[in-house]
């Protein structure tokens, strides 16, 4: 297929840029003694996950049981589910754990007791990590005594094995300035290091300390507390991450839109609105059209401002760069694949799209 014939809106992935990003992260982590466990919540593709494992990843992360189901059923092993699993989903989790190695995070004594009881009833032992709130103020046990209590509950539960601690510093990922991002990330790693020490002081060995994303993996490695990093967005990047200083990854993801109307002098209308691009992190960038900007104009429409109207024709393509890759990818069923020369090379299903339960 010729790219000009592509059905728009289309989510386009440059596979050459993807491969370079995968290789750069694998190279950056290899030889550090820290394991790479990429987060698949970004790309939602078992094919990309398998490639990450081929390049040396120790396993992968998923955010949800539903994503883990897609990954494990596709043959991906050693999956860490990085958000808490509520009691209503424990049966699905145990079914999955029977198929391949799946570990979970836990942030309360009650949750540890319940999962442990139900795993033991099925004769299973699930690897569990204490999720520690290192400052994001999302889920997670408080660092210190609360986290130690959850670790103790995991150790005491017959159906669980204590595997370590997780402390994701999500609020540090988009601090754009390098020194400030490093300073804030280090504060989080100090909380993790103290908690690890307190758990160890309670005679509980802590085999794994897992943390970090695309913005901070480098600081987690430098600090030394992490045994494992969990970056996700580096595979394709986005307009938000582009602004973070000194990140060696390139944009590999685009939305191809078509101009559908040119009747107003101030803007042209394209076929990409809220249903085709996420705007939680601001408007997407407009590629190749300097001085223009995108604004949503409803579910199905968007405006591109300041396009010279003499140049704009209905049916012409406009390429956008998503501001937030995860939430945009989740809007599409597949990637249209291109290479560095802009040649169309095929289609890849986004198998875990919408697997948010
Ligand atoms: C627990 C956890 N780890 C890792 C990541 C990956 O972060 P990023 O996509 O910014 O690399 C996320 C993303 O939200 C996350 O929630």
Task: Report the principal-axis shape.
Answer: elongated
Oligomer: single chain
Please report the number of helical segments. 10
Assigned CATH architecture of the largest domain:
Alpha-Beta Barrel
CATH topology type of the largest domain: TIM Barrel
Order of helices and strands: EHEHEHEHEHEHEHEHEHEEEEEEHEE
CATH class of the largest domain: Alpha Beta
- The strand count comes to 17
Structural class: alpha/beta
Beta fraction: 15-25%
CATH superfamily of the largest domain: Alanine racemase
Question: What share of residues is helical?
Answer: 25-40%
Ends apart, CA distance between termini: 35 Å
Query: Are any ligands bound, and if so which?
Result: pyridoxal-5'-phosphate
Mean pLDDT: 96
Radius of gyration: 22 Å
Count of domains:
2
Characterise this structure.
With 357 residues, the chain is of the alpha/beta class. The chain folds into two domains: 111 residues, Lyase, Ornithine Decarboxylase, Chain A, domain 1; 219 residues, Alanine racemase (TIM Barrel). 30% of the residues lie in helices and 21% in strands. It has ten helices and 17 strands. The strands form two sheets. Strands 1, 10, 11, 12, 13, 14, 15, 16 and 17 form a nine-stranded mixed beta sheet that branches. Strands 2-9-8-7-6-5-4-3 form an eight-stranded parallel beta sheet. The model has no long low-confidence stretch (mean pLDDT 96). Pyridoxal-5'-phosphate (PLP) binds next to loops.
């Amino acid at each position: 297929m010729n790219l000009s014939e592509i059905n728009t809106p289309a989510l386009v992935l440059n596979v050459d840029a993807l491969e370079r990003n995968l290789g750069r992260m694998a190279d950056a982590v290899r030889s550090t003694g820290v394991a790479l466990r990429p987060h698949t919540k970004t790309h939602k593709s078992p094919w990309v996950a398998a490639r990450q494992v081929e390049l040396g990843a120790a396993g992968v992360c998923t955010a949800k049981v539903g994503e883990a189901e897609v990954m494990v059923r596709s043959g991906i092993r050693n999956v860490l589910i990085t958000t808490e699993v509520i009691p209503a989903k424990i049966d699905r989790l145990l079914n999955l754990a029977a198929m391949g190695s799946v570990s979970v995070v836990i942030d309360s004594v009650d949750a540890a007791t319940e999962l442990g009881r139900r795993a033991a009833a099925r004769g299973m032992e699930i690897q569990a990590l204490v999720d520690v709130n290192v400052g994001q103020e999302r889920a997670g046990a408080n660092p210190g005594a609360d986290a130690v209590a959850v670790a103790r509950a995991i150790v005491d539960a017959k159906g669980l094995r204590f595997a370590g601690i997780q402390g994701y510093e999500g609020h540090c990922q988009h601090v754009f300035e390098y020194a400030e991002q490093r300073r804030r990330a280090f504060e989080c790693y100090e909380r993790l290091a103290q908690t690890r020490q307190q758990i160890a002081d309670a005679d509980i060995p802590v085999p794994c300390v897992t943390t970090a994303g695309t913005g901070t993996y480098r600081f987690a490695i430098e600090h030394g507390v992490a045994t494992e990093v969990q970056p996700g967005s580096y595979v394709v990047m986005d307009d938000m991450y582009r602004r973070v200083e000194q990140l060696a990854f390139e944009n590999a993801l685009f939305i191809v839109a078509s101009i559908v109307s040119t009747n107003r002098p101030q803007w042209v209308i394209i076929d990409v609105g809220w249903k085709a691009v996420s705007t939680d992190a601001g408007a997407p960038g407009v590629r190749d059209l300097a001085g223009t900007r995108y604004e949503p104009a409803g579910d199905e429409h968007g405006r591109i401002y300041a396009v010279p109207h003499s140049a704009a024709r209905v049916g012409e393509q406009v390429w956008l760069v998503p501001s937030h890759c995860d939430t945009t990818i989740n809007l599409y069923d597949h990637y249209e694949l291109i290479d560095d020369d802009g040649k169309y090379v095929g289609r890849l299903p986004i198998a875990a799209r919408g697997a948010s339960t």
